[in-house]
């Protein structure tokens, strides 16, 4: 695990801070879509935040802005106290704090699992022996030990997603950004992956922001749930989920868990 070196700026500031964010897209027809507006959010170091909301409310846009993949039309993004954008340029030292995993595992089919996981290290020029050693440690962390030399096609969907999470963790990021990482998996595998993700997060101590459409997934994983409303995407409600960790299958059956699920469902239904 990386040493807990905290600069003065990051000790006193949130891990991620979004202020006055607005995002407009140009459409092909020459019009404009206001995808997000008035987004102000501070995320603490080590927090698990889940973004949820109706289709098209701007969840992916918000995550891509945090990842530095989109420069917001207006507003600011700070990562560990440092602005992500300076003028027109992205601060790549801030981007190094980030690991990203999407719905599709996006592993390269012509690379073995260990090579896929170690790819970010290769791009950094880390020597082969060192990066394969790291890949092996990560396969153990995410629960696919023994599959290092396999090809992606030889793994199940859940295992491929574990490999994608391992790859996102390969550079030891402080922040993990995930867009529907288990959206393509069957319900049982998905439940298992949620338990696993919680375990990985608790071991790594990183900050996680995850987008999902699943209310129960949101309540199971989150310290805080950010509910976005659509057209344009705004912050509707922030819901604290105070249940102790680690949560397990039983947690989801408790009345207080179910009460948050019901409340969220009601709020989402009212938006449609
Ligand atoms: N590149 C783009 N160009 C134009 N419009 C876009 C672009 N990307 C997203 N949009 C629009 O911005 C809005 C927000 O999209 P976004 O994908 O962020 O929503 P979302 O909440 O993640 O949706 P979903 O839950 O369906 O994945 C939508 O109206 C979408 O059509």
Automatic annotation (TrEMBL):
Gene3D superfamilies: P-loop containing nucleotide triphosphate hydrolases (3.40.50.300). InterPro entries: AAA+_ATPase, ABC_transporter-like_ATP-bd, ABC_transporter-like_CS, ABC_transporter_ATP-bind, P-loop_NTPase. Pfam families: ABC_tran. It comes from the Bacteria. SUPFAM superfamilies: P-loop containing nucleoside triphosphate hydrolases. The keyword Transport applies. SMART domains: AAA. Signal peptide: none annotated. Residues 16-255 form the ABC transporter domain. GO terms for molecular function: ATP binding; ATP hydrolysis activity. Keywords: ATP-binding, Nucleotide-binding, Transport. Belongs to the ABC transporter superfamily. This is ABC transporter ATP-binding protein. It comes from Enterovirga aerilata.
